[in-house]
């Protein structure tokens, strides 16, 4: 869509496509780092850093890459910057559209290929690990890393934030606390304040923020 808009503004197809592709790595960076930002202020700083980086890269392309020397020896900038490309609001909308698109794409994939045999691959202490989603009991966050605990009480450490793990694991996993994500297939309400998870019946706390949501979700699961 952005490529089509830029082509209509007299950019060549190659130039428009290159500018459009710039947004992809920054969108991935935001998706990876945003869940790790604990404070709202950190999220704002991260967003500003990404927007400034995109603007600087676009200016670099226009003023350093897409230039030519005229016959008289003067530097000629062959392409002026479209105002929208240095407008933070427009850039923010593009990044938001990419994030929303990725979210719904992941939801569709999870729904389309939902299966107990679905697996996930990650690195734990420099070792590649592949687990069935059905074998993961819960994920625990310890600020700098997470611990993935299986139904057989094995655990693996990983640096990906718990928010990102929530996106990767899909709707079968439920956030019950800022530090815990549980597999609804292995979780039952133990009390108003805790959830019992896995064959070992590990007791995990429910935070006030998620209490009503967890109660409704697990009650619905138990009733199925």
Key descriptive features of the protein:
single chain, 224 residues, alpha+beta, OB fold (Dihydrolipoamide Acetyltransferase, E2P), 2 domains, five-stranded antiparallel β-sheet, three-stranded antiparallel β-sheet, elongated
Q: Spatial order of the strands in the main sheet?
A: 7-6-5-9-8
Globally, the shape reads elongated
List the helices and strands in order.
Answer: HHHEEHEEEEEHEEEEEH
Overall average pLDDT: 85
What share of residues is helical? Answer: 40-55%
Query: How would you classify the helix and strand content by structural class?
Result: alpha+beta
Percent strand equals: 15-25%
Regarding quaternary structure, what we see is: single chain
Query: Uncertain spans, ≥5 residues at pLDDT below 50?
Result: none
Structure description:
- This protein has 224 residues and is of the alpha+beta class.
- The chain has 2 domains: 2-112, no CATH class; 119-223, OB fold (Dihydrolipoamide Acetyltransferase, E2P) (Beta Barrel).
- It has 6 helices and 12 strands.
- It has helices at residues 2-8, 13-33, 40-65, 88-112, 162-169, 211-223, and strands spanning 67-69, 75-77, 119-124, 127-132, 136-141, 146-150, 155-158, 173-177, 180-183, 187-189, 194-197, 202-205.
- The strands form 4 sheets. Strands 7-6-5-9-8 form a 5-stranded antiparallel beta sheet. It has a 3-stranded antiparallel beta sheet with strand order 10-11-12. The chain has a two-stranded antiparallel sheet with strand order 1-2.
- Helix 1 (2-8) runs antiparallel to helix 2 (13-33) and helix 2 runs antiparallel to helix 3.
- It is elongated.
- The relative contact order is 0.09.
């Amino acid at each position: 869509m952005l490529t089509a808009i830029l082509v209509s503004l007299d950019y060549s197809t190659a130039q428009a496509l290159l500018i459009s592709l710039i947004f992809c790595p920054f969108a991935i960076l935001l998706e990876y780092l945003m869940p790790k930002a604990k404070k709202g202020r950190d999220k704002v700083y991260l967003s500003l850093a990404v927007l400034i980086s995109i603007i600087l890269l676009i200016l670099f392309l226009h003023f350093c890459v897409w230039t030519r020397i005229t016959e008289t020896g003067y530097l000629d900038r062959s392409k002026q910057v479209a105002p929208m490309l240095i407008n933070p609001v427009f850039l923010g909308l593009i990044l938001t559209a990419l994030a929303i698109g990725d979210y719904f794409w992941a939801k569709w994939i999870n729904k389309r290929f939902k299966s107990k045999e679905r697996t996930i691959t990650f690195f734990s202490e420099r070792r590649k690990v592949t687990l069935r989603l059905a074998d993961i009991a819960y994920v625990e966050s310890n600020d700098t890393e997470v611990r993935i605990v299986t139904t057989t009480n094995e655990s693996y450490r990983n640096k990906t934030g718990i928010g990102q793990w929530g996106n990767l694991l899909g709707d079968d996993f439920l956030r019950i606390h800022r530090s815990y994500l549980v597999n609804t297939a292995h979780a039952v309400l133990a009390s108003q304040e805790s959830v019992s998870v896995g064959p070992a019946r590990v007791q995990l706390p429910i935070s006030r923020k998620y209490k009503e949501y967890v109660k409704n979700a697990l009650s619905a699961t138990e009733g199925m």
